[in-house]
Design a protein that fits this description.
Two copies of one chain form a homodimer. Helix content of chain A is 45%, strand content 12%. With 348 residues, chain A is of the alpha/beta class. Chain A has one domain: TIM Barrel (Alpha-Beta Barrel), CATH 3.20.20.210. A seven-stranded parallel sheet of chain A has the order 1-4-5-6-7-8-9. The first copy, chain A, has a two-stranded antiparallel ribbon with strand order 2-3.
Chain lengths: 348, 348
């Protein structure tokens, strides 16, 4: 049950497409390497140690929300640890990003993936959620998140990030049975994982389909949409889901079809066009080009205004970047952006 | 002046949206590492030695066309050597891709870029064109190409390929004067370079905007479209231009606005939707997902048929991949694809 403060907070009102006093904003990867407060924690622990420490994960989550003055906190966590109890051997190599040492190299390997039944080994995630919720301001919602089924499948198959998704698409094209098995196991696991985040204290969840932009609309429809839809349909009723995909505006009508209370737009589409495409009967989140934060403040303001103008004052817009904030960005620019949006987004 | 054989070849008829006996096809990067005949040449010389040898560049160009039976040859060359006489210090490091040792790191650096006036140092390109044209079958057109202004600018600024184009966009956003200077010098240089390819014997040219998909429509319109248009408008009259961009279907209306006889579509959009978007009064090229070539032949055939079905038998479709062919692809699959398209694309 939501408290009245949360029920009437800017973020959740906008997700319901109700009018708000100003446009709510949060920033993807807001607790990240651009922020000195985050870096001072990271100097003491590795990335995965930080993810696994409920105390430190809560600290960086809370600090980012407080320092920036954003309208939502997002759990500090990573997309991939949920794959470990499913049978994958994950390592965060120094300066190299995540590596899976036993990727699914063929359709036959798919049977190695176990559905996530028992969530005990991911307890650090839910404990972090509890701590954050306890210490967050009463009117600030906490967002949980996970990778969407395609993005997780491509990590599991490629063993890391990929340029062309050769192995993923090869399995997808050549063995639809193995693909379905993999995507179903991931989807059922995601439902449990996300619902456990909600039960621990999250007010909304975001699905990140960070790699699905490499797909044609026909392939997304055949091989991805049913599973993303399965996950969204399985989320506890009443909890908003932000359905976010990056890299291909031609998929937006299908993203909408897959579901979600809020559709996340990347910056490759003009916000006005993107909202028109997904329909005004759904809220949207986005979509400033993250590189805008490298520009001088007058330029940043002009670019933020263009995004707000694209929304045209219509209730249901949650301001965000079109992708995560870069480590190179001056933290003062992020703070300034939050103030600008609150100022320029004010109604009446 | 075109010979009658060339004037009536499949490729050029399709570029004029005239009916053809079957759908013409060629493959981006058809003279590439997947092809054993190419690799046997590459074992003797480095990539840049191959680019700079008119004899060997002609050999790999001609061999690929002959072995595959495609309806066009494309000059074997690279996007970047034209930047060398413009003042950039280019190296092809072994296994690393191109590196520019003196990239444009700030707006002030832009003045280091000299416009390409004298083409003598690129003579190897035009000599390759002459050799290829001399030895190509009389009914096979030769395509020249170059990088589009944005793609060249981003190489010149980032010093190589880039994930997020931080430096490029930073200059673009913060110093519109420097950006204009850079893009104008590149555009005027491109006009001379492409027209010299045409004068040496190319029947059409393709502009590759391989990296422009990182831009929002508003940024493409403000910072890129005028320069791509300048290049296309400067091409010798009567020569078809293929205007190709990858990575963002939301830019297609603007790509069309920039010009071109043929609009190149990547695989992120369904061909039928892409053609409708750019308009039926222009020809289109594309757009099979290149990973399709990794699949078994029945799957490949089904996927090629879906692209042909998207074109719906309308004159003006040139079959291609949505991007270059991967080195991992079995050469027999590429040959089979050419046969399939010629067979399935047959009219009447």
């Amino acid at each position: 049950m939501l408290t009245p403060e949360l029920k009437n907070c800017r973020f959740l009102k906008a997700a319901r497409r109700e009018a708000t006093d100003t446009t709510p904003i949060w920033i993807m990867r807001q607790a990240g390497r651009y922020l000195p407060e985050y870096m001072s924690v990271r100097r003491k622990v590795t990335f995965i140690e930080l993810c696994k420490s409920p105390e430190l994960a809560a600290e960086v989550t809370l600090t980012a929300q407080r320092v920036l003055g954003v309208d939502a906190a997002i759990l500090f966590a990573d997309l991939l640890p949920m794959l470990v109890p499913m049978g994958l051997d994950l390592e965060y190599a120094k300066g190299e990003g995540p590596i899976i040492h036993n990727p699914l190299q063929s359709a036959a390997d798919v049977d190695r993936i176990q559905e996530l039944e028992e969530l005990g080994s991911l307890h650090f995630v839910f404990e972090a959620v509890q701590r954050i919720r306890r210490d967050l301001p009463a009117n600030i919602p906490l967002l949980g998140f996970a990778g969407a089924p395609f993005t997780l499948a491509s990590y599991a198959i490629e063993g890391g990030s990929s340029k062309n998704y050769l192995n993923t698409k090869s399995i997808m094209y050549s063995d639809s049975g193995a693909w379905r098995t993999l995507m179903e196991r991931l989807s059922r696991s995601l439902i449990r994982y996300l619902n456990a985040q909600i039960e621990a204290g999250c007010q909304a969840v975001q699905l990140f389909d960070s790699w699905a932009g490499c797909l044609s609309p026909a392939d997304y429809r055949a091989y991805v949409l049913p599973y993303t839809k399965m996950v969204i349909d399985g989320i506890l009723p009443g909890t908003p889901v932000i359905n976010f995909l990056t890299g291909n505006p031609a998929l937006l009508p299908l993203l909408r079809e897959a579901g979600g209370t809020v559709i996340g737009l990347d910056w490759r589409v003009d916000l006005a066009d993107g909202w028109k495409t997904v329909g005004y009967d759904v809220a949207v989140q986005g979509n400033l080009d993250p590189v805008s934060l490298m520009a001088d403040l007058p330029t940043l303001k002009r670019r933020a205004k263009a995004v707000l103008d694209g929304a045209g004052g219509r209730p249901g817009h949650i301001f965000n970047l079109g992708h995560g904030v870069f480590p190179e960005v001056p933290p003062d620019h992020v703070k300034a952006l939050v103030e600008m949006v609150h100022e320029m987004g004010r109604n009446g």
